[in-house]
Amino acid sequence: MRAFVKRTIALGLAVLLAFPLSGCWNRKEINNIMIVLGAGIDVLPDGNVELTAQFFSPSASGGGTPSTSSPQSGASSSPGQTLVQSASGKTLAQAIDHLQKKSPRLLFWGHNKILMLGEAAAKRGVEAETDFFLRYSQTRERTRVIVCKGTAKEVLGIPPSYVISSVLGILNMVEQKFQIDRTLKDLAEGLLGESKAIALPYLDVGLDNKGKRNVEYFQGSALIKNGRMVGQLGNETSKGLLWAEGHSRWIEVSIEEPDGGGSIELSVTNSSAGLKPRIERGVWKFNIDIRANLYVIQNSTAWKLDNPLVLQQLERQINREIQQQIEETVRQLQKKNVDAFQMAQEFHRSYPREWKQAKGRWDEIFPELEVSATVHSRILRTGMANRPS
Amino acid sequence: MDATTLSPDLSANLQSLQPLFADSSDVVFHPLTIEGSLHAELIYVENLSNLQRVEWGILTPLGTMSREDALTPGHIETTLPVGKVTVLCEQKAAVQSVLSGNPILLVDGLSSAFSFGLAEWSQRAIEAPPGENVIRGPHEAFNETLATNLATMRRRVRSTELKTPQLTVGLVTPTPVAIVYLQNLARPGLVEEVKNRLQSVRYEQIQESGMLEELLQDQPYSLFPQLLSTERPDVVASHLLEGRVAIFTEGTPFVLICPGNFYSFIQSPEDYDNMFKGTLSRWLRYLFMIIALLLPAAYVAITTYHQEMIPTVLLLTIAKTREQVPFPALVEALLMELMFEALREAGLRLPKQVGAAVSIVGALVIGQAAISAGLVTPPMVMVVAITAIASFMIPHYALSIPFRMLRFPIMLLSGMLGLVGLVLGFAVIVIHLCGMKSFGVPYFSLQRPQSLADTLVRAPSRLLSRRLFLSARNEKKQGQLKKQPAAAQGRNDHGNQ
Amino acid sequence: METSKLSALQLMLLLFITVFTTAEFVVPAPTALHAGSDMWFAPIWSIPAGIIACGLAYRLHRLYPGQNVMEFLPQLLGKIPGKLVGLLIVVSNLQIASLVLREYVEYIMGSFLDSTPMIVIAATVILVCAYAVHGGVEVLGKCSLIFVPLAVITLFVTLLFLLPDLEVRNALPFMENGPFPSITGSYVSQGWLSELWVATFFLPFLPARSRPLRAMVGTVFVTVLSLVLINSVSLFLFGVLTKELNYPILVAVRYVSYTNFIEHMEAAGMAVWVLALILKLSVFYYASVVSTARLFSLPNYQPLTLPIGGVIMTTALFLFPNRETMAKFLSTEAPVIFLSSNILLPLLLWVIAEIRRKPAGKGAPSS
Predict the structure, then answer these.
(1) Looking at the domain assignment, is residue A13 inside a domain?
(2) What is the pLDDT of residue B189?
(3) Residue in B closest to A68 by C-alpha
(4) Surface of A (77-116) touching B: CB under 8 A
(5) Of all helices (H) and strands (E), which one includes residue C263?
(6) Do the Cβ atoms of A29 and B304 come within 8 Å?
(7) Which of the four, A99, A153, B278, C126, has the lowest number of CB atoms within 10 Å?
(8) Is residue B397 one of the residues assigned to a domain?
(9) Are residues B171 and B310 both part of a single domain?
């Protein structure tokens, strides 16, 4: 027993002593990292990639020094506690390297929420950047991808008015699904998928009431084909995309009274979409089937909404309205020959044999697709008031 | 001291006995004469015997006894109005009897001594157990006198199967120790094993059952307690009914129960009033046990290696607070935990009224002051506080010790390797527990899947009443073994061995 | 006192985790490469491999009850050939153990501890496993009761949070090119399922009257089902992207984001996985130690624990120059090696055993 104890102690000591000799290798103390909240990619005139990163800056505002009267209010954070820094390089990886060398602390990508692509960079091509973000272990596949108007550097640099970081504000908007919501994984899938096309949300910056340019808002979507941005859809024309994905909470549906007068405004509670490809007698067709639930939020017409017949008529008009929204989107997409709905994939799934033969000709088939939308809407409620009664 | 037999000659006996008790002013040698001519000697220890009963029960009747009666064998022990009279033939036994408070009567002409069971001394009243309080349940605890404890036990288990053989342990301070078990339920071989182990104890003094515990354990170098120690008779009773054996020691209210099982340390008598309360308490306890062990390490690991796990807004807050603190998270954690352990220890030494206040206030104030001084961050203080509360949740003190101690190595490991280190440490502890056996019974595992009903949750009483016996692999076999009636039931239940 | 050291349930859990722990990482990507959208049911083709491995272990156990493979080898083949084949078995176990260790090192280094020296990562886990192996089969069995449910429940609850992101239509088209892509895709999982042969070292410890065949076949089905689940989740989440990812399941766990709070959980997921891996490594470590001890006719295997641990560790560190070589090895050559040592070899042994049994009559104990 004695020998056993001695040996165990010796072994334990050896193991124990070995560890501190070299220190802890992967340690990242929180105050030794720079937390990247958002990243932006632009392309410079000389072809280099410029990376802009928005960091969290812990000591940017109040609570920096402990006050003597009250306990340190380390918990409070105030708006705009961020720091924006850029660096450039021939490739993204090099740009990151240069950025790191400009930073006093280690870059930490674990909390990067948004990847913003400047319009020019998106037009040049996004494949290389996507590869980096997928390959590097610290970056996350759930990072949202957004194309912005102008340069990402400028957009990321806008100081927010009341959120801690503008990136968090944008993230909130994305999560609310004001526009389509794309993660890095979606982008990668889209780049690899059969249709080689995908739509990304498009961000623009506007003026606030004081004339300062610091209000970010989503303005439609950017169309990516074969890894490059080839076009854009406005807010109105992007609605079809939202319908197809079932993220319709913020779509405005408005039915106007034919002879001037007012309109009925409705809000969508939820909707579901079915995408059905069909090949009938050699003709390739695609049908988008929408089921939507809406409720009335404003009525400035003379129609009496307590009458079920009126509601039925209204529903028919809504169906038409939504149908038009979708068909408009598809028309635009077909014109630009960008299959943002991933219809190619649906054909592959449902008609594998035909797809195998037609694979190479998708660019010709897509613009000629007969796309139709069938909508079944239901008005659930008409609100608290009942005017006109 | 040689175990010589007593001689019929009184003076010879006295000659060998008196030197033993020379300079012991509390041992009284009281000579008396029976019927004027027969010499006898009463030896007792003052204040260890009930003097009044000695006078009424022994001296008075002897004063009127006749000489022939006294010398008739069997007369004295049956006619004296004393409840318990034992006839001893050996000097050693006589001496032990005196030292245990039972007066000895030596009569010239009789080669045996009479030991009267009149031991009585002032003992602590039966009060609530200081360490194992419950809200609903008996508030009786054991006290330091073996006989009283056995009596309390006997009141709880009024069965003839309750056996209480005694033996003495300790070379310099022979301490009476009683092994208590239920004969029809105790695992065969267990009682023998316990007896063997007790008898092989070669220690000079046994002041507390803690020493016994250490000497009886299977794995002396393990941090985890392998025998349950308790002050509560109801706990002892329920374990006896599960087939375990209890060891009562003179001089300490703590009774040892063997073999110990990990889950018995987590159960509390309060669980048994109400099944919902019981189940909920148990789950809470399991959760907080894990917290007590792993929370500081998890905090260190996550803030040092896995910052991506922290929700963003929380991370930003923590980053802000960490700006002013000079130490890395691991050092900060170790510092705070050590501080807290010190406070806890210090609190034990203080008198009751002051102690509680100082511990709580001390912790809060020191924590606050440390934050203001920029030494630690508020989240760390929270972590330490929660860990401390969690470690108080373990019902039996003995089990909270390994948890408190093991926190530190796991903290170190997770400070070096992150969550991987934490998991490795946890795995080592689990492996250790899985390999432990107490008296041949696996320590960590449940005896049967049905036992889940009493460990994982606290199932309704109807389901629990089919008691699962520790020893019963096959209940029928068990019944057969024990069918032999315990014919060895003599008059002396507390047969001295 | 218990006469058996292992219960059927513990054996099931141990076997399951032995196969599943690394299979969940290694299987999805090659399967996606070969089978495309059929990858979700491809593991079903590996049921035969599992059943054969289990069946052989069981059959040989029935022919030589109470003995693991090393013990009845001399009986079966004679002293010298027995030792030679025994050596083969020892090497096979050592190889699998070092492979598992190396996989562990690569995964941990790839995900978090990338600057930590390999030897530290390897040494720490080997020491923990050494402790478990030292404790013996009982310890392994009891630990499996705790670690396996923990690991499995954590994994599946995490994957449950992915439900909103799964697109089941990724499974279409179904059998676009017939059954062959999925069969080729199941190649890797077949190799992994054959690891169930290691049960031969544990069957002797079961209670004497138990019939473990049902439990073992149950294990095969449960394992295959779990692999189907893993593949399905990878496919439904990533679609065409699956084959581009090295470890789809890891990325899947990273992708979980539920109500903005349950997110970034991969560190916790990996931590729990480490528990499962400790078991798997201990299983093969134990098999290595026991078979080596038997090869050299040592009475007790325990003194060999640390030395064999050292052997496993050094082998693991020198096995491959980098992770890609390992990944390639795992998806191409490893299954062949596993299949031959875990199925072909036992098959041969069994055939020989059956042949020897018939003419001998009263020779070997009746089945």
Answers:
(1) no
(2) 84
(3) B372
(4) 77, 81, 108, 110-111, 113
(5) strand C262-263
(6) yes
(7) A153
(8) yes
(9) no
